[in-house]
Write a structure and sequence with these properties.
heterotrimer, A alpha/beta (about 290), B mainly alpha (about 220), C alpha/beta (about 575), A: about 290 residues, alpha/beta, Rossmann fold, 2 domains, six-stranded parallel beta sheet, about 10% strand, disordered N terminus, B: about 220 residues, mainly alpha, about 80% helix, about 0% strand, extended
């Protein structure tokens, strides 16, 4: 790497030191195995209570709108939601708007279904206790179509079973028959689901997003277009805590704390250095 | 000129107005129009893949042929593309290195789970390092505004992690003071700023859309106009 | 080349006119953004009577005449602003609503069907949700709406068309008679059905798809479990390998026919549902409590009303949205016309766009290429179109300076358009030979593959100037930070407001949101484009003034206890 003549000499070295410190701040706490107590946020609590308030046989629609790169933050949310559904007897309907998300969505369904057996002693069957619809192209138009006719938009599920007559989709003709929609998104699909899906169908919606996107959900949360949301790994950890099934979310909290504190200390250190330098220059100027 | 400019502009205007009105018309004709347009969009998008494939292949083959700097990386492009296409076409087999469980997976699934997913996650995780480096370099209290930004950033960053509850409990006797302060910053100034930006962007989008519909803006057609 | 022109339109007159025009819309705009009525408003209405506990009554009260709605109020009508799938049944709330009572709506195709018992029944539970006042789009804001109840009857849900059923021999013959499948296809299908019928005791029949369990391998054809069963059956029958392969092929072919017919059946069912919804229906209303049912009657005879659903041509609930959109469009068009007549509209400096020449000049001096990085948007996205405008300008300047530009794309169509734009720009600059199609290419379709490739190129080739323009996701910081480490001058622009902080911290100049859209007007300085920018700014001022006035008015209204429900609804985003 060539050095920009406009930058300080130690720029590259400083960067590398920062990278090493961040790596240590993430790796050491993660493998220490220690847990940190924390209080779930109100936004996550509302989502949890809404799902918990569903009755057995109700349907929860879960679009998986994230790709493998966001798996670290959103996969724990996906697992927790599905486990919660299987625990309550709620029927999750899983689908995705993106072809790259199909594998991850299927992986989540498989793992949660296996967990249902080991954790709750329930044998869940695709097509009866949950349905994975897979992917169809169309994005916003697909959402519009599902709002009118879900089985028309997905005539078969991922495993090529016809949705007409499927037990898991009994009584579900469109999004209007869903009790709750929880969009797990790392892309800008939340607004599409609000505009084309839940506002039109008149159903409540929540979302789980990466931490970067979480601040942008507050306008929708405040106007009740979202009943709540899960933001980043902390949101996943909050949900796991409420569900009382620990997972990767809770496990990552100590590492997240350490990294945030490290960055704050680095910023403060840099600013202290600048202020100290100014004070010294002032003193030299006076004397 | 008519074929290259006038007819495309007429098509853009006509379809644009119909698509705009479609949202206000509940009649089944409107839904049928929307479905038809969706189908056409998917068909055109499918053909566009060939364009992209040609562009990508041509560029990398040229690099390999001329041994341009970085030509070795171009070989990996073809290994990856051809490899995944081949395993998909060949059908269901068990990955040779898959740590056998009851679930059998195809080579394609294996490639997705053990190549694409880790590579994507790895590149994404570089964000953590870059974010630390960018924050260190940029958050300097040069003036009052920068100082306020710095203070808000520190409070929000700290308030979002569990350790803030411990610190808050020791300092203030209540574990939720710092998290609530962080939430207040998100709920009020952040929300107000976001709404302002969103409004501006939305109005800009409407204005730009109008320029496109009226044919004032024609850059999407290619060419100098 | 660029001159700053003085303002030619009197600002005071403009703002005064805008303020006057904004006043009528001020109230509800503020409400729309700050006090939007949430979806479940009726449930939070403090005046709503809470649902009494059902366990209180020890004995079931008897239904009396006061529990029955007034016959004069009972009517059926087309649901407005819909696609012809719903009929509104309306009645006045009776004087008494005992605990546990249900409203019963009986729906029949003819009046005689009521006598023969050939009708369907829909039960409606009394609750605040069924009050007509919760649907001002249908019933308005009058006091009468508080006293009316309604329900939506969808005939296709009550009189569901019969499912065609599985593909049996009989059905296949019917399809052949209708000409849906040819005689040859019929013969082939019957052979497969016969094989499946023989396997029936060992497996689920393939014509009724088996539900999948988690442990079963996820293959891509529905015939997989049946194929395995066929394999087992084939072994039992001691078929030769050729026969087994033929059977497998036939099964695959049958699956395709089955899928085609299933899709056709789904379309037929949809068409049949539309026909059912379009018919005329007759309604009777009653109240039910336990075993007792009392129908709404007049002169001893149950009242029968009729109604039909019709597809409507306009969603009246969205009228406010349409009016505002048209007003905004009118403002933009007006200022475009003004700008055509009075060119020279003032536009403030946008630092990022001013820096383009400086960046390209710097690159040329350092003998390094210029990089232009498109976002992940499709060519139909406005940010991609705005980026293409800037690309045209940058390519022109780069060709003029005899420097090289590399354009990196994530979408194939954007690649094609970018190639055209760069080629035209080079020709316009008098340097058609400067265009190299390999410099404008698709790098990768997937987000992080794109980032990895572009980062590698940046580090190896060390560009002098980097332009990152378009819609970005998480890759924004990766690209910008890598670019920053190379020492290049960076200009970024995006309408993805989640990524703006990252660009601002790492890039030298950032175009925020609408500044990206304004680029075409800024760079070209064409009067029509500047006029549209001015119109957009006037629209924004309109909203700001409306917000301010609306906040004041609503605060006063709440303090004085005025009923502002109709104001709340004035600009509420409706769907019907």
């Amino acid at each position: 790497m060539t050095t920009n003549p406009g930058r300080p000499r130690h720029y590259e070295l400083t960067r590398r030191i920062i990278f090493v410190l961040v790596a240590l701040a993430v790796i050491l706490p993660y493998f220490s195995g220690r847990q940190q107590p924390f209080t779930p946020s109100p936004e996550v609590r509302k989502v949890f209570e809404k799902v918990d308030g569903l009755s057995p046989g109700d349907h929860l629609f879960i679009p998986i709108d994230y790709d493998p790169s966001s798996e670290a933050e959103l996969y724990p949310m996906c697992l927790s939601l599905l486990r919660h559904c299987f625990k309550k007897g709620v029927i999750p309907i899983v689908m995705t708007l993106w072809p790259t998300s199909v594998g991850i969505a299927k992986q989540g369904c498989d793992e949660a279904a296996a967990d249902a057996n080991s954790m709750f002693g329930k044998k869940v069957v695709s097509g009866k206790d949950y349905v994975f619809l897979g992917f169809r192209p169309g994005v916003q138009n697909l959402i519009l179509k599902m709002g009118d006719n879900l089985k028309g938009a997905f005539d078969k599920d991922y495993y090529n079973q016809p949705t007409q007559g499927m037990k898991a989709l009994a009584g579900v003709n469109s999004l209007k028959d869903i009790k709750l929609l929880v969009d797990l998104a790392a892309m800008g699909t939340v607004e599409w689901w609000i505009a084309y899906g839940t506002d039109r169908a008149g159903i409540p919606m929540a979302t789980g997003t990466t931490a970067v996107m979480a601040p942008d959900l507050y306008p929708f949360y405040q106007s009740n277009q979202l009943i709540g949301f899960l933001g980043g790994l902390r949101g996943a950890a909050d949900y796991e805590k409420l569900l009382k099934i620990p997972g990767r979310g809770e496990r990552g909290m100590l590492a997240q704390s350490a990294t945030h504190v490290l960055i704050i200390l680095l910023i403060l250190g840099a600013n202290i250095r600048i202020f100290a330098g100014r004070l010294l220059r002032k003193k030299e100027g006076l004397s | 000129m008519i074929l290259k400019r006038t007819i495309p502009l007429l098509i853009v205007f006509g379809i644009g107005v119909l698509a705009f009105m479609q949202d206000y018309v509940p009649h089944p004709w409107s839904t049928a129009f929307r479905d038809e347009m969706t189908t056409w969009t998917m068909v055109i998008g499918g053909f566009a893949m060939f364009l992209g494939l040609y562009s990508l292949s041509h560029m990398h083959i040229t690099k390999i042929r001329r041994k341009m700097p970085g030509w070795g990386y171009s070989i990996f492009v073809f290994i990856g593309a051809v490899g995944m296409i081949a395993v998909y076409i060949l059908g269901d087999t068990i990955g040779p290195l898959y740590a056998g469980t009851a679930n059998k997976k195809s080579l394609f699934d294996w490639g997705y789970e053990y190549i694409l997913v880790p590579c994507s996650a790895t590149v994404f995780s570089i964000l953590a390092f870059f974010m630390a480096s960018a924050a260190f370099r940029t958050f300097r209290a040069r003036n009052l505004a920068a100082g306020l930004l710095l203070a808000a950033a520190i409070i929000v960053m700290f308030g979002r992690v569990p350790v803030s509850e411990n610190v808050s409990l020791r300092l203030f006797g209540d574990g939720m003071v710092i998290p609530n302060l962080s939430k207040a910053i998100m709920d009020y100034p952040n929300l107000a700023a976001k709404r302002g930006i969103m409004l501006g962007i939305a109005l800009g989008m409407i204005s730009q859309s109008m320029r496109i519909l009226l044919g004032i803006e024609r850059s999407y057609m290619g060419g100098g106009d | 080349m660029r001159e700053s022109h003085t303002v030619t339109v009197r600002p005071l007159t403009t703002w005064a006119a805008v303020a006057l025009a904004a006043t009528p819309f001020a109230f509800a705009l503020a409400l729309a953004f700050e006090f939007a009525c949430p979806a479940g408003a009726a449930e939070t209405n403090p005046a709503t009577i809470a649902e009494p506990a059902t366990s209180q009554a020890a004995t079931q009260p008897a239904l009396t005449a006061s529990c029955v709605p007034d016959p004069a109020s009972f009517r059926a009508m087309d649901r407005p602003s819909d696609n012809g799938s719903g009929i509104l049944v309306v009645w006045a709330k009776p004087a008494e609503e005992p605990n546990g009572v249900m409203y019963v709506v009986q729906v029949a195709r003819t009046k005689e069907d009521f006598k023969t018992g050939n009708f369907k029944t829909a039960e409606v539970s009394p609750s605040p949700k069924i009050l007509a006042s919760t649907k001002p789009n249908y019933f308005g804001y009058s006091d009468e709406a508080e006293k009316l109840c309604y329900t939506v009857i969808t005939p296709a849900e009550l009189f569901e068309p019969a499912e065609p059923g599985p593909l049996t021999e009989r059905r296949l013959r019917e399809l052949a008679d209708q000409g849906v499948i040819t005689p040859e296809q019929l013969a082939r299908a019957l052979a497969v059905v016969a094989v499946l019928a023989k396997e029936k005791p060992a497996t689920q029949p393939a014509t009724v798809p088996a539900t999948r369990t988690v442990a079963v391998p996820a293959t891509r054809t529905a015939a997989a479990p049946a194929m395995k069963a066929a394999s087992a059956a084939a072994q039992q029958a001691k078929l030769t390998p050729d026969q087994q392969a033929a059977l497998k092929a036939e099964r695959k072919w049958f699956d395709k026919i089955e899928a085609y017919l299933a899709k056709r059946d789904a379309e037929d069912i949809e068409a049949r549902k539309r026909e059912i919804n379009a018919e005329q229906y007759f309604f009777r209303l009653g109240v039910k409590l336990g075993d007792q049912t009392l129908l709404v009657a007049r002169d001893g005879e149950p009242v029968v009303v009729q109604g039909a659903a019709e597809p409507n041509l306009f969603k009246w609930g969205k009228l406010n949205n349409l009016v505002l959109s048209l007003i905004f469009c009118a403002i933009v068009v007006t200022f475009i016309e003004i700008a055509k007549r009075k060119p020279g509209m003032f536009i403030r400096k946008i630092a990022g766009l001013e820096a383009i020449n400086e960046a390209i000049g710097r690159s040329t001096e350092m003998d390094r290429p210029v990089y232009f990085i498109h976002g992940s948007g499709l060519v139909s996205d406005l940010s991609a179109i705005a980026s293409l405008n800037i690309l045209s300008h940058i390519a022109y300047r780069t060709a003029e300076h005899d420097s090289r530009i590399h354009v990196m794309n994530q979408d194939p169509i954007v690649t094609a358009v970018s190639q055209e734009v760069v080629q035209q720009a080079c020709t316009r600059a008098g340097r058609p030979d400067a265009y190299n199609p390999d410099d404008v290419s698709l790098v990768a379709y997937e987000q992080f593959a794109f980032v990895a490739a572009v980062s590698g190129m940046m580090v190896r080739r060390q560009p002098g100037a980097i332009f990152i323009l378009g819609y970005f996701g998480a890759e924004s910081l990766l690209l910008a930070e890598t670019g920053s480490s190379t020492g290049a001058i960076q200009v970024a622009g995006t309408d993805a407001y989640t990524q703006l902080p990252f660009f601002i911290t790492t890039c030298d100049y950032t175009l925020m949101g609408e500044e990206l859209y304004a680029a075409s007007a800024y760079l070209a300085r064409e009067p029509r484009l500047l006029g549209s920018l001015r119109g957009q700014d006037v629209g924004k001022a309109f909203i700001m003034i409306a917000l301010l006035i609306g906040t004041i008015v609503l605060t006063v209204a709440v303090a004085r206890g005025w009923d502002v429900a109709w104001l709340r609804g004035l600009l509420k985003a409706g769907n019907g």
